[in-house]
Design brief:
By secondary structure, this protein is mainly alpha-helical. It is built from six helices and no strands. Helix 5 crosses helix 6. The longest helix is centred in the C-terminal third of the chain and has 74 residues.
Length: 174
């Protein structure tokens, strides 16, 4: 029974070609570090509108994704708390629940979630850079090992040629 290999990665044709080239000629492959800045153009495009959208999204995310924004949104949410509490006491649970979910939870949790995502992203970037250094070092070691194996093959071929020259010729019987 043969096992079928299923490709689960979603990579571009360019990426697959680079991978095949690296497998075919490992000594010629040069590891590269892919940064967020390089990938940003793939999200919204490299045109003027795409660059504007990317910059605007990053500026807004950096502004809203701070704990200062979270504290500010808590204060904004607390402004309407007295009316929500009064409605809740009168028996209008809908208004109390609506305030809790719409005015408070969504408003406050949004920046906190963004801050958490930024922390996770920073740790992933640091890990990627460390992995890149490790993989680059391993690649250099692998290339050196391949060169040494090639040198050893050449030495073995030379030794074999010398042994063949030193081997006595046996006369042929006719």
């Amino acid at each position: 029974m043969t096992e079928q290999i299923v490709e689960r990665r979603k990579s571009s044709d360019k990426q697959r070609a680079a991978y095949a080239a690296a497998k075919a000629a490992p000594t010629e492959h040069v590891p590269r570090l892919v940064t967020t800045h390089q990938v940003r153009r793939q999200v919204h495009g490299a045109g003027a509108i795409g660059q504007f959208n990317s910059r605007l999204a990053v500026v807004i995310t950096k502004g809203v994704g701070t704990m200062l924004a979270a504290y500010l949104f808590v204060l904004i949410g607390l402004v309407s708390l007295p009316q929500a509490w009064a409605a809740f006491i009168r028996g209008d649970t809908f208004t109390g629940v609506a305030w809790l979910s719409q005015s408070f939870l969504q408003l406050v949790l949004l920046p906190i979630i963004i801050v958490g995502q930024n922390v996770i992203s920073a740790s992933q970037d640091a890990r990627a850079e460390a992995d890149h250094i490790t993989l680059t070092t391993l690649h250099a070691m692998n290339v050196r090992q391949l060169q040494m194996l090639e040198q050893q093959q050449n030495i073995l071929k030379q030794q074999q040629a010398i042994l063949e020259m030193l081997e006595p010729k046996t006369p042929q019987v006719t």
